[in-house]
Design a protein that fits this description.
Layout lengths: L5 H15 L8 E5 L2 E4 L2 E5 L12 H14 L14 H14 L3 E5 L2 H12 L5 E5 L4 H10 L2 E5 L4 H9 L6 E6 L11 H11 L2 E5 L14 H4 L9 E5 L9 E5 L1 H10 L1 H4 L6 H16 L2 H19 L11 E7 L1 H13 L2 E2 L2 E2 L9 E6 L6 H18 L1
Parallel strand pairs: 3-12, 5-6, 5-7, 7-8, 8-9
Antiparallel strand pairs: 1-2, 2-3, 4-10, 9-10, 11-14, 13-14
Helix pairs in contact: 2-11, 3-11, 4-5, 6-7, 12-14, 13-14
The structure holds 4'-deoxy-4'-aminopyridoxal-5'-phosphate (PMP).
Protein name: 8-amino-7-oxononanoate synthase
Pathway: Cofactor biosynthesis; biotin biosynthesis
Subunit structure: Homodimer.
Length: 392
């Protein structure tokens, strides 16, 4: 019998997805300015970016990047442990630790790498990885990489989390949760989860990819907003590619944990450090995110305006107070049809379907940034209503 061929198998998956209309496609963006994108030669108003604070094109970040590139060049040339760790990285780690109220912070090249690195370092085979069902894929993959026993609890349900933790009290346990859930925009019950972890002797790991810069005092994130200390949340992960408008990520915590990650987090050890010029740009982004609170106020205003208008038009939202404001569509087909209809009208709003979200919960993932104005929100709401009517 001929052995299965991995590439032919990929081709089969692709054909199946094409037949089901669920094929994922990459589209090249030809130009981007504020909230506007150009795709296939068409100018579109985008509601898809995670650049919530509008920093990705900020002149001060560009300037910092340019200056640092003039000094250091482009690439870091090596891993952090092998001469790639430049002064810019060190300074950024200190800024991030100060901002999040932690002893130390450790940079990773992406958030995905930070989560798989930290979980594989903290968990041994057979340990308990207790996770919210709606956690980001990188948290799930980190638990799998560790060979841990993945125990998933009902979204946001602390009693369900308690049952999963109690399943094997003899094993070390890390409870991981998104701070702001990436596809729903709601915030995890961090205070109750921290209490649970203390009672059960588990370590709480919060992935605040979408909360950092956006919620909490000085934008310090969900953990700060919940009034929790470094002792309550020993492992805090944040990304630099979303509200901070750059790229990369970090894990913050006490010196023992960070030193341990340097020894054991393979996605830290065996990869090239992020370009130092990006670290320089991220330092400026942290400063703006902390001190320009008008950006968060503007987002809150846009979100309130959107939710009010959506309710008036009978759109089904989820209970989110963050700039992630999904509009539920039900079936994958309806979500795709809505997204296509919006594209025809000049709006870029991606449809999110299974397996990224549970079946029957397909949606438009609407996100806001400070680049949007009230008129943009109104235009989007009218367009969604129009396309919905046409589809029905
Ligand atoms: N965690 C969450 C909750 C995310 O939404 C994302 C990005 N999609 C990541 C981690 C991964 O971050 P990065 O894009 O920096 O790899």
């Amino acid at each position: 019998m001929r052995r299965p061929h991995p590439i032919e198998r990929l081709a089969r998956v692709q054909a199946e997805r094409a037949a089901a209309g669920t094929l994922r496609r990459v589209r090249a963006v030809q130009a981007a300015e504020g909230a506007w994108l150009q795709i296939d030669g068409r100018r579109l108003l985008g509601f898809a970016s995670n650049d919530y604070l509008g920093l990705a094109q900020h002149p001060r970040l560009r300037e910092a990047l340019w200056r640092a590139a003039s000094r250091w060049g482009v690439g870091a040339t090596a891993a952090h442990l092998l001469g790639g760790h430049r002064g810019e990285h060190e300074a950024l780690e200190q800024d991030l630790a100060r901002w999040t109220g932690r002893d130390r912070a450790l940079l990773f090249s992406t958030g995905y790498m930070a989560n798989i690195g930290v979980l594989a370092a903290l968990l041994d085979e057979g340990d308990s990885a207790v996770q919210d069902k709606l956690n980001h894929a990188s948290l799930i993959d980190g638990a799998r990489l560790a060979g841990a026993c993945l125990r998933r609890y009902v979204h946001g349900d602390v009693d369900s989390a308690r049952r999963q933790l109690a399943a094997d009290p003899s094993k070390a346990a890390v409870l991981s949760t998104d701070g702001v859930f990436s596809m729903d925009g709601d915030i995890a019950p961090l205070g109750a989860l921290a209490r649970l972890c203390r009672e059960e002797g588990a370590v709480l790991h919060v992935d605040d990819a979408h909360g950092l810069g956006v919620v909490g005092p000085e934008g310090a994130g969900c953990v700060a907003q919940a009034g929790l200390s470094a002792g309550d949340v020993p492992v805090l992960m944040g990304t630099l590619g979303k509200a901070l408008g750059v790229a990369g990520a970090f894990v913050a915590g006490d010196a023992t944990m960070i030193d341990g990650l340097v020894q054991r987090a393979r996605s830290y050890v065996y990869t090239t450090a992020m370009p130092p010029a990006l670290a320089a740009a991220a330092r400026v982004a942290v400063e703006i995110a902390r001190f320009e609170s008008w950006r968060r106020e503007r987002l809150a205003h846009l979100v309130a305006h959107f939710r009010h208008g959506a309710a008036a038009r009978g759109l089904e939202l989820v209970p989110s107070t963050t700039p992630i404001q999904p509009v539920l569509a039900g079936s994958a087909e309806t979500a795709v049809a809505l997204s296509r209809g919006l594209l025809e009208l000049g709006f870029y709003v991606p449809a999110i379907r299974p397996p990224t979200v549970p079946s029957g919960k397909s949606r438009l993932r609407v996100t806001f940034s400070v680049h949007h104005g009230e008129a943009d929100v109104e235009a989007l709401l009218d367009a969604i209503s129009h396309v919905r009517q046409r589809l029905s």
